[in-house]
Amino acid sequence: MEIMDSSTDYSLESMAFDNEADGEVPEIMSAQKIEIESPEVRCMKGDCDGDYAPG
Amino acid sequence: MKIIEELCVLPDGDNYILYAPLRRTILRVNQDVVALLLKIKAGKELPKDELTLRAIENLRSLKIIDSEDSFPVDVTSNNEYKPTNVTFLPTSDCNLKCIYCYADSGTLSKYLSVHIAKAAIDFVFHNARERNIPKVQIGFLGGGEPFLAWRFVKDIFEYSHSKSDEFDISTYFTGVTNGMLSREQTLWISKNFQYLNVSVDGTQAVHDKHRPTKSNKGSFERVLKTLTTLNDQGFRYGVRSTISSLSVDYMTSIVEFFAELGVSRIHFEPLFACGRCRTNSKLAPAPKVFIDNFIKCLSIAQSTETDLFCSAIRLDTLSSTFCGALNNNFYITPEGYVTSCTEVSLVDEPLSSTFFIGKYDQSAKGFVFWDNRRNLLTSRTVLNMPKCSKCIAKWHCAGACPVKAAYEGDLFDATRLANCEIARELTEYHIRTLASGEANYLPRVHSQSIVPT
Predict the structure, then answer these.
(1) Do the chains contact at B240 and A53, CB–CB below 8 Å?
(2) What is the DSSP letter of B322?
(3) Chain A residue closest in CA terms to B61
(4) Which chain B residues contact residue A22 at CB under 8 A?
(5) CA atoms of B88 and B117, how far apart (whole Å)
(6) Could you say which of B6, B272, B391, B422 would form a disulfide bridge with B312 (CB–CB 3.0 to 4.6 Å)?
(7) Interface of A with B (CB under 8 A)
């Protein structure tokens, strides 16, 4: 199976297969939830990082 | 049956990684799941065997299908401009002459008037009371070196405290400095501020090359004394390093150096050719080299328990906008203007017509704001940037730095920036490491398995 995608296009549509997948055994091998704390929430807890300093 | 819009797919050997940023979910699946999703998308008839039905049910429970995308808060927030934080750019003057300075600091010596700054303090305290916000953040930042305006900083500190008592709202003081501080200044800051960012570009050889004094001498030794004093006081600070083509090969040794010094937060950014180095783009590091070395730095940071940060790799951020320049930034320039970004600090700069959003009005003794300019900036969300629509870093990079994009000619297109490539590659790298169950390099991002393998 060849994949025709570009380096910037990560969409499902970019995964155009050159032939239909013949096996019909869909499997989700793992799933993970990303746990994050937003900067805004952290700042409200007193953990502000100061301003983003450019360069 | 409908698939969520915000779904990225990455080939991963014989398998695939599905990344749903707004669901904060990463899946590893085989190719038949991708084929199944494509069939669903195309509205084709689906197999009715037990395995397919179970996969569909799992995708539904993981909210990959038959679910609405849940946008970050800032997409739906109203556009009312009532900032509760203020950052002062007290002066354009500087005691260093960094080879890459975005502000070309030290060329002009303009200082912000205290009475304008006090009006800004009044404004944010009133807003905080109106919005029921318990804390006001007050920052001091470049243009130039803010702590050259030492009397100004102390006056504003005292005035803010009087307002804090009057409004019963607490304060949070931050600053960004080049580190050329006296011991007395450093001790005062460590006693009265909550956070400080110190610009240090690495070991002495690198730092002195990047950040000489006005008289072209090294600044490293004095900055090191500042860091040592901050360490002795147990003060919470971070260092901010600009990585150039001169230092990109030394990034790992820079992290080791800072870790050994006791620095707990390191912020790397690749140099962008603007300001003083606008005509010398050779100082910008090659993106690929920066990416490769940053990845090496992540493992060193992990082993030394150092928080290493770069704006190009921030899975902990979920936003439609890159930074506060597009939201509520309230920065007061040395000339009394309101800018939304510290990188545009003088009215003579070409980008001031975009990023200057107001001015202190002497007759009204308050600030006037230019809504047309603010409206343009607030409209610069990743939802209005077509070239970002299919990018894996879309909701983390959120369109990258607006000032740098504007420098390159289009506020709404950052894809010409080296930062674009860096953000894409590093975001993809981070997602792949999380999907593979490898160590989480960034301390603010953790993943939790939600389906047994």
Answers:
(1) yes
(2) S
(3) A31
(4) none
(5) 7
(6) B422
(7) 1, 3, 5, 7-15, 17, 20-21, 23-39, 42-44, 46, 48-55
How many angstroms separate the first and last alpha carbons of chain A? 44
Beta bridge partners of B25: A33, B20
Per-residue pLDDT reduced to its tens digit, B6-55? 999 999 999 999 999 999 899 999 999 999 999 999 999 898 899 999 99
ipTM above 0.90, yes or no: no
User: Smallest Cβ distance to B32: which of A25, A35, A38?
Assistant: A25
Which residue ranges does chain B devote to CATH 3.20.20.70?
82-368
Q: Is B162 exposed, middle or buried (0-12, 13-18, 19+ CB in 10 A)?
A: exposed
Question: Which chain A positions have a beta carbon within 8 Å of B194's beta carbon?
Answer: 46, 48
Measured in residues, chain B has a length of 453
Instruction: Give chain B positions within 8 Å (CB) of A20.
Output: 35
What's the mean pLDDT when you consider all of chain B? 91
Task: Give the count of beta carbons closer than 10 Å to the beta carbon of residue B399.
Answer: 30
Report whether CATH 1.50.10.10 matches the domain B82-368: no
Mutate to test the interface with A, among B62, B390, B426, B440 (most CBs of A within 10 A): B390
pLDDT in tens, B126-141: 999 999 999 999 999 9
Residue B183 burial by CB count (10 A; 0-12/13-18/19+): exposed, middle or buried? Answer: exposed
Interface touch A26/B33, C-beta < 8 Å: yes
- pTM to 2 decimals? 0.89
Quick check: B446 and A34 CB within 8 A?
yes
Q: How far apart (Å, rounded) are the C-alpha atoms in residues B242 and B306?
A: 18
Q: Which of B9, B47, B448 sits opposite A24 (nearest CB)?
A: B47
How are beta strands B85-88 and B135-140 bridged, if at all? parallel
Cα B368 to Cα B20: distance, rounded to the nearest angstrom:
42
